[in-house]
Amino acid sequence: MKFCFLFGHADCPDQVMPNLEQSIASAISNGVMNFYVGNRGAFDRLAATAVKRAKKNFPEVRLYLLLAYHPADHPQELSGGFDGSYYPMERRTPRRFAIVRANEAMLRQADYVICYVNHVGNARRLLELAQKRTDLTIDNVAERRRE
């Protein structure tokens, strides 16, 4: 089953929500049923909200919280609308590398990426890594005008 990894800048503006919702609907129409998102900033909050809204029309869609830290070391309560959590690494990762490594692991597994990247930073580096995969569909909502 296809899955989508959502990532972006922590300072993402709320105005991207219409494009984000449209991107999620497009992913669903292309067979994506599982969505994975972190919980570190504005984009993650918006992305989770957009998927939760989509689930109202597509109850088969699943939303998972991406865990950067091993759940035994950092238990994470799930808020409403999440169907579970996912720790993508096989072993514990040092704290200072955890977020970067979790994101990289998700890129290796994803079929689809929806992101918000419009300036330098970790999200830009992650997008550049994603662009090296020829079999990955990438939708950067920062590149589209609001429709």
Helix and strand arrangement:
Blueprint: E1 2-8, H1 17-29, E2 32-37, H2 42-57, E3 62-66, E4 84-86, H3 98-109, E5 112-116, H4 122-130, E6 137-140
Parallel strand pairs: 1-2, 1-5, 2-3, 3-4, 5-6
Helix pairs in contact: 1-2, 3-4
Give an overview in words:
- The protein is α/β, with parallel strands linked by helices.
- 34% of the residues lie in helices and 20% in strands.
- The chain contains 4 helices and 6 strands.
- Strands 4-3-2-1-5-6 form a 6-stranded parallel sheet, with helices on both faces.
- The longest helix has 16 residues, at 42-57.
List keywords for this structure.
147 residues, alpha/beta, six-stranded parallel β-sheet, 4 helices, 34% helix, 20% strand
Biggest beta-sheet profile: 6 strands, parallel
Question: What pattern of helices and strands is seen along the backbone?
Answer: EHEHEEHEHE
Task: Summarize the amount of helix as a percent range.
Answer: 25-40%
Q: What's the mean pLDDT score?
A: 92
Task: Estimate the global geometry from the Cα principal axes.
Answer: globular
Uncertain segments: none
Radius of gyration: 14 Å
Distance between the termini: 30 Å
Number of helices: 4
- Strand content of the residues, in percent? 15-25%
Task: Give the tally of β-strands.
Answer: 6
SS-derived structural category: alpha/beta
Q: Provide the spatial order of strands within the biggest beta sheet.
A: 4-3-2-1-5-6
